[in-house]
Amino acid sequence: MKKIQITIHFTTLVDVKNIKSGDTIEISDETTMSGLLSILGIIERHQKYIVIMRNGEKSNLSAKLKNNDEIKLFLPVGGG
Amino acid sequence: MIAINKIDFIKQLTEKNEKKITDLLQKKTIGIAGCGGLGSNVAAALTRIGIKKLILIDFDKVVLSNLNRQFFFIDDIGKDKVDALSENLLKINPYIEIEKHNLKLTEKNITECLLNSDIIVEAFDEAQEKSMIINAFLEKKEFSEKYLICASGLAGYDSSNIIQTIKFNERIFIAGDFTSQACEKGVMAPRVWIAASHQANMIVRIIAGIKNV
Asked: What is the pTM assigned to this prediction?
């Protein structure tokens, strides 16, 4: 199992564990997007509707992460 | 209604606008997804400055508690929001073009409803609905040339100054403080209007050709 590096950006209420927006982290090359969100501490209820961008394109929970991926997360909060 | 033709009406309504922006506004159609606190006030702001056309989408009816922040009046209670809002906007500009969709916007009908919009306003209440429109906007090729202006975090009465507009990607902008949730802090006119005004001004900027915050 190899390690890959990804960079994460977020503008959201999400309580992300020990990570600042723009940080690069090291994870297993087997990690899916859903797995990454769990590592970040994003609860399953929020995973169902969080907006996920990967290298500028919309992504999804089952996508497998690759080295040097740039991930952008946005979890809206209610009110309008 | 006052007896004045369209050209003279628009000229006088927009007398205080910058001239070149009025000409651009008079060519644009804005889709308003949700006609509550955000959507009704974005619609009112754009109507006042002379936008050509609005597409109003909402499935709900006006209730009294809406009046703490939404562009409705006592006489509107019980009416469909798209009808009441349309009537109120026409009282500002009787020549504005309005297309109404009295329905719940979903992934299935979003393309049909918003295809003719140049810019789309996400003005929903629920977080899941906000995500739905962003994800649909990113997925559907019909939206690839359009802009989406969202809002997230406008509840309560925390500082006005932490509400900002950010550029999420080249075609999506988001206004709000990104943390204040309605379920915890309630929603009231002042901060909802600030966020709505951020959205409306971002629309004007995009129409003016300025693609940054």
From this structure: 0.95
